[in-house]
Amino acid sequence: MTKSEAQGGPALVWLRDDLRLADQPALAAAIASGAPVICLYVFDEESPGLRPLGGASRWWLHHSLKALEASFAAIGGRLDILRGRAGDLVPAVARAAGASCVFWTRRYEAATIEIDKQVKAQLSDEGLRVESFNGQLLFEPWTLRTKTGDFYKVFTPFWKACLALPAPGAPTPAPRKLAAAQWPAQAPERVALDALGLLPTKPDWAGGLRAAWTPGEAGAKARLAAFLDEGIGAYADNRDRPDLPATSRLSPHLRFGEISPRQALAAVRHAVDADKAPSRDVDKFVAELGWREFSYHLLFHNPELARKNFQPRFDAFPWRAPSDAELTAWRKGLTGYPIVDAGMRELWLTGTMHNRVRMIAASFLIKDLMADWRVGEEWFWDTLCDADPASNAASWQWVAGSGADAAPYFRVFNPILQGMKFDPAGAYVRTYVPELAALPDEWIHKPWEAPPLVLKAANVALPRDYPLPMVDHGKARDRALAAFAELKAAGG
């Protein structure tokens, strides 16, 4: 027992990307201490190295914190919010409160790790008990090494190594009650959630996000339940179909820690045990959790994953700088390729995009327009509700061919064939590109090839109602392959 614990000071829980009550080991440890609890969230945009949240993530964070405030209030607790440098504010609150112990969930970005190390060292030196917990991953990055002692760079052996480790423990239930400590008089002044300015106002562009999502722990549980009822039973076959409700849509809930990966894992495995889903479908979903784990493994061992090519040879790749008009067309879904445009419009409207279409849209930007992958990564960071620091960067590098376990650069997604294969009746395109809704299935993914009478019958005039393709995919593919060949010839 530390000196502060002997004196009966409160327990401080520092919340970050773990905005839930259930399966929350840091919160559980604070309650188990027997002391009254301060539940603190610090909105930090000032500490060096931290990447500011994009607009869609800020919207989500506001509503997630609002839901968490209500959850704490329902069990007798309180969520206290501060704004500023967490490395200064957390110790200041702990000192002002005479805290006996401080707990938090571990993070894996270089800047956040540095902040956590400094806070832990500082408070430990002052005699406080300080503990961190794994509440974000199934397997933490430092627990996995190859036989040569290196980190994994290929997913399949990485995931095989994960599955050989002891299985993650069962998730724990939410606490039923919490004794809230008083906010100390000498602590920094708290701020109201609305004062953080996380919501868009002029203009308020978040209507589609509000219609599509319910942020918060309750929303995450409802989303998981719906997936177990509607999607998991055909997940392996249908997960690549954007026209079907076959994916979990849990990614933003996982990103903000409204649900833990242990909860998702336990729930889908229970579905097998209860004969609600074939093991093949569950194994495929669990492997997708594995890709999230792999992304964090890469980020932990490569802190510059969102800024530097994982494979340095791509530093010499001859990217071209697309014009403002080209980038605007891609961002607004006006490329002339319906599956790409449907995805980009879904993103702008709802703050998400089906994963298969993410790959198609990313390939179009990188391979057809020859844009540096970081241009797309930045746009997704701003517009995705699930803009995850590990998965976003790792996925863009995967498509670019510059990442770990990457798709070879010469693998170029054909947006016409991809649309025909994964949206065969054009339902996804019709949802987000309604100007093409009346076209027959045969032409929905290549309207510029439709006979004039077909276009007329569908009341579509090109390019008045919908643009012609901004590039010829065949020629763009040849250009991309030539650039890759140039890199290889130069020894890259």
Brief write-up:
By secondary structure, the chain is mostly helical.
Walk me through this protein's architecture:
This protein has 21 helices and five strands. It is mostly helical. The protein has three domains: 3-135, Rossmann fold, CATH 3.40.50.620; 137-171 and 216-301, Serine Threonine Protein Phosphatase 5, Tetratricopeptide repeat; 312-485, DNA Cyclobutane Dipyrimidine Photolyase, subunit A, domain 3. A five-stranded parallel sheet has the order 3-2-1-4-5, sandwiched between helices. Strand 4, helix 5 (110-125) and strand 5 (129-133) form a beta-alpha-beta unit. Helix 11 packs antiparallel against helix 12 (279-301), helix 14 crosses helix 15 and helix 16 runs antiparallel to helix 17. The longest helix is centred in the middle third of the chain and has 23 residues, at 279-301. The termini are far apart.
